[in-house]
Amino acid sequence: MSDETAGLSPRPLGLLAELTHRCPLGCPYCSNPLELEGRSGELDTLTWARVFREAAELGVLQVHLSGGEPAARRDLVELVAAAGVAKLYTNLITSAVGLPLTSLAALADRGLDHVQISIQDSDIGSADHIAGYKGAAQRKRALAAEVVRLGLPLTVNMVVHRANIERIAAMIDFALRLGASRVEIAHVQYYGWALRNRAALMPRREQVEAAAIEVERLRHLHRGSIVIDSVIPDYFARLPKPCVGGWGRRSLNVTPTGLVLPCHAAQSIPGLEFWSVRDHELGEIWDRSPAFEAFRGSDWMRDPCRTCSRRDIDFGGCRCQAFALTGDARATDPVCHLSADHRLVVDLASIGEDAPYEYRRQVPRADLLAIK
Amino acid sequence: MSEPLPQAAIAPDCLPRLPRGVRLVHNKAQGGWVLLAPERIFKADAIAAEILKRCTGEATLAMIVDDLAAAFNAPRERILTDVTSVVRMLADKRLMELSP
User: What does each C-alpha distance from A296 to A44, A234, A289, A315 come to in angstroms?
Assistant: First the structure.
């Protein structure tokens, strides 16, 4: 009998640890919230170590060390070591910028299991332009080579959008040449900064369809050499994605200041009460915090979700997206063709602009500016 | 629709090995054996777990099959099918090394 049938909340498998919101890059599709958390409020090493232990007790198997840029943390080696002591499998999700090769060797020594490096484009000039950081592409190549040299598995993450969607084959080829065993072709999802830059990022429908066919072809061609995981852009879909595997079911996210979220965009939904690891044990937050309970199970659903045959497959899609597009977090995700608001998504998907990117940057705090 | 790949046999003298970053662990909360891989988790049933425990790079495929056949008093052909299936599935995903 599973936890769910026994009336208990299911156990999470993954922890997304946003160690910091600091990052040297300014990717316009960043999923971090627009209100980035400043350095002064960041959790310290000991607190993260406790969070990792509590996560393992809760049943979490893997931690994704992310951010911002996790390498911006001076205690990254201690953090990886702590995750290892807690017996969590460690994935380092990095831009490679700010991570010296010697640090990577130290991380490997402490048992780091896997490294994922983001690649903005196969074309260097375009890649640096997208990242808003000249020289980023070179750093990524260098770190990728070192990951492979150290014998760690390498995943290349490629966020796909209008500026690079025509180069998917070249990007996968590049991933192969870097020695990656896996490549994630991740079409942009519109949260945080990506939502702000949506018009500049949105590809055309024909491009998305061509890309899907191309990915399938390449997956076949490269079978056994590299795994190609692909996340389709759901603005062009008829069925919603099972967002985070269902609210409060499979994963949890801890922000740099210690707030625990059911997903990285949850703070965009008004009225949710989030608890902090500074005040509560992680298991208690998972089981009882109002934010986690808000959309757990199916009692909160309305029709058509409530009685839909896909209810326990896609869980009604994404709450954050439903709120962002309809103003109602309990609504059916408008990506679903059964949503009364589906037309909204179809229309939004046709809006593309050659607008300049609004790069993801941390804004100086207003109280510091007042000191003059 | 994609065509199924031809079922190429795996060389009996290859040395299957879980590479770095692929770990078989027993987890109480999950109620059994799980294979942890880059950003993925596979549930391993009892048979798969016994196969994976032996994929250390020190035994050939043939030796692994023989060992399991003896340990579980099961027909070799059946064991060979199971072992080949597990090893190939993971090798395809770059989660199992086959050569020394």
Answer: 30, 22, 11, 9
